[in-house]
Amino acid sequence: MNVRPLFDPSSSTYSYLLADEQTRQAVLIVPVFEQHARDAALIRELELTLRYTLETHCHADHVTGAWLMKEAFGSQLGMSPSYHARNVDVPLVHGTQVTFGSEALEVRATPGHTDGCVSFVTADRARVFTGDALLIRGAGRTDFQQGSAHLLFRSIREQLFTLPDSCVVYPGHDYQGRTLSTIGEERRYNPRIGGDAREEDFVGYMRNLGLPHPKQMAIAVPANLRGGEPEGGKSPTTPAWGPVVMTYAGQPEIPPEWVAQHRADVHVVDVRSAAEFHAELGHLDGSQLLPLDELRARAGEVPRDRPVIVVCQTGRRSALAAQILASAGVPQVANLAGGMVTWRLLGLPTGPA
Ligand SMILES: N[C@@H](CCC(=O)N[C@@H](CS)C(=O)NCC(=O)O)C(=O)O
Ligand SMILES: [Fe+2]
Hints:
By secondary structure, this protein is of the alpha/beta class. The protein has two domains: 2-224, Ribonuclease Z/Hydroxyacylglutathione hydrolase-like (Metallo-beta-lactamase, Chain A, 4-Layer Sandwich), CATH 3.60.15.10; 245-345, Rhodanese-like domain (Oxidized Rhodanese, domain 1, 3-Layer(aba) Sandwich), CATH 3.40.250.10. The chain contains eleven helices and 20 strands.
């Protein structure tokens, strides 16, 4: 199984993209709304079929990207039925098996941080995705959303600490830059519940954490009870002006065919050298020559009133150019995918030399 951790720095949340390498079927554990473009790009670039998005619980600190993934890929949304959330396709209860290709995840109920928390264990028991039940050297707070430190103590001890010592722990968050742990390590070193800690020790610790409520709580909980569907049900991810696709590298790209059809509605900036501009690959009719080396200094010469398409030989230098223009305040900018090489391969028209 291929496991890709993805991090949302603003909420310190880990999402995990899991794929069966043979069939390329995948699941995404805990997608984050704001990271949708990045995560969707990775799914496309790795040519995965996203079968499910899986929630470990109803999050209080960020909005899920599940609904956006469902819109983009037709994935089914898995979540505990205990929250009565909308848009849930697969109710996740203790014992549910989630299969994708030849891989499977077993759902274990691990309530305590919230009453509907679940963890996901791989079929070989080599990995566990603990959500906020068990964190690295920590545990999810129990002071809201029907939290219970007593319940969490039992969940961790009975459902998680019974896994093999070597089982790798993939947490829902980390606030100190840590990535993975193991069950054996947490059983020994977890300061709240490790070693010979007893229930009263854990409960006393959790009762006195004194954490402020998550900043996003008032927005996140109601949005997550809709599976992350925006109010009004409208996807905010694609700009209205054209089919811009964000790559996993974080660069906005637009297909050449669309640019050819909408040539009159966009401004084209060619960032190659003057010699390349006039060489045999040619250039788009009416494009503005603005070599990449001069772009930062001359960004003010680029119009702001129309979408701007940046072009180079193969789409590499122009990808950087798109970033430079966006930082210089050009509101609508995208990179011509594949540059002039692809443009010519597709037989699209060029201007006079
Ligand atoms: N400061 C964070 C809140 C962090 C927080 O409360 N996280 C929850 C998980 S949703 C937790 O259980 N934290 C445990 C801890 O920090 O020990 C925010 O505003 O989003
Ligand atoms: Fe949480």
